[in-house]
TrEMBL record:
NAD-dependent epimerase/dehydratase domain mapped to chain residues: 6-223
An MF annotation (GO) of this entry: aldehyde dehydrogenase (NAD+) activity
Gene Ontology cellular component terms for the protein in this record: cytoplasm
InterPro entries the UniProt entry points to: Epimerase_deHydtase, NAD(P)-bd_dom_sf, NAD(P)-dependent_oxidoreduct
Domain of life according to the entry: Bacteria
Lineage of origin: Bacteria, Pseudomonadati, Myxococcota, Myxococcia, Myxococcales
Name the record gives this protein: NAD-dependent epimerase/dehydratase
């Protein structure tokens, strides 16, 4: 069985894909900058090969890609360094092609679509990004699609909306989970009542592994929609109900996000993406479902239950040593 390389394996999507590969019996290589992080997450799995890389060094990228047939690309950058996305993709593609990698699956976003022209967005929607981040993501995609069209390597892209779940801290909902678990007020970025969709992070891995092994998937991109249109308010209501508390929120509008950005680089960069809260991009994934047949989506109440349970386990694990110290 071939080894699958996960570039950017330390992220939550990388961990979801790793779990799916493990469950299906695939050998896989986890690639990232930090050996410690990779070993904490995958080191106990005998099927996992831990490889560190330096994305600034072409020789290091080639070594990370050597001997694999399929490369899953999930490399993240800081929100204020999106200019790196096309450059890192270019280096990775050059290394992968040189090493004889046959297939690359890129995990993408809705950013390249720009402002939605339809209520739901299919893959035929124009890619006209209205943000710098969208332009950088589109440039990243073009490099892969052009390499595929030239016959140098097979490439496909899976687009995700916002996601949530255990370990997902960069989510509009994360603060609500933490606050609800503590019975406190959740600081949210609004408006809260516009339609939105979320993908449960543990659903992504099995879809990625199914897509990578489908010959018809290559040469284009595919949408993965959430588990239905909802709103932040409805999600928060369910989160607090499951946590056993009445919902309490305070909402930041665009002006407050801009003000917070004076002190927080992530919030500063979020300003240009604020349109996703007022002009939501809701994905139509009928093409993906037609391709794969089965696309499992965890219902929101169940995803919320699992996320709260994971958060409680994490907090209990952190509190454990403190309790022991307090009693000695």
């Amino acid at each position: 069985m071939e080894t699958v390389a996960l570039f950017g394996a330390s992220g939550v999507i990388g961990q979801s894909v790793a779990r799916a590969l493990q469950a299906q019996g695939w050998p896989y290589r986890v690639v990232g900058r930090s050996e410690g992080s990779l070993r904490r997450e995958s080191g106990a799995d005998p099927r996992a090969e831990v490889v560190t890389w330096n994305p600034e060094d072409p020789a290091s990228i080639r070594a990370a890609a050597r001997g694999v047939r399929t490369l899953i690309y999930m490399v993240g950058v800081n929100y204020w360094q999106f200019h790196l996305h096309p450059e890192l993709m270019r280096r990775t593609l050059e290394a992968a092609i040189a090493e004889g990698v046959e297939r690359v699956v890129l995990i993408g976003t809705v950013y390249p679509y720009g402002l939605p022209r339809t209520t739901t967005v299919t893959e035929s929607h124009p890619r006209e990004p209205n943000s710098y981040k969208g332009r950088m993501r589109k440039a990243q995609e073009e490099l892969l699609l052009e390499a595929d069209a030239a016959g140098k390597i097979k490439g496909t892209i899976l687009r995700l909306p916002d996601f949530y779940g255990p370990g997902v801290e960069r989510s509009f909902l994360y603060r609500a989970f933490v606050a609800a678990n503590q019975g406190k007020r959740a600081p949210l970025i609004g408006p809260l009542d516009t339609p939105h969709e979320f993908v449960f992070v543990d659903d992504v891995g099995p879809i990625v592994t199914a897509l990578m092994d489908e010959p018809r998937a290559y040469g284009r991109f595919w949408n993965l929609a959430g588990a239905g249109a909802t709103t932040q308010r409805e999600m928060v209501k369910e989160i607090y109900a499951q946590a056993g508390h009445a919902p309490k929120t305070m909402t930041m509008g665009k002006g407050m996000v801009r003000l917070a950005g004076l002190f927080d680089p992530f919030m500063r960069e979020l300003v240009e993406m604020y349109y996703l809260l007022t002009n939501p991009v809701l994905l139509d994934d009928s093409a993906l479902r037609g391709l794969l047949g089965t696309v499992h989506k965890t219902p929101y109440p169940e995803g919320i239950r699992q996320t709260l349970a994971a958060l409680r386990r994490e907090q209990e694990a952190k509190a454990g040593p403190a309790r022991v110290a307090a009693t000695t």
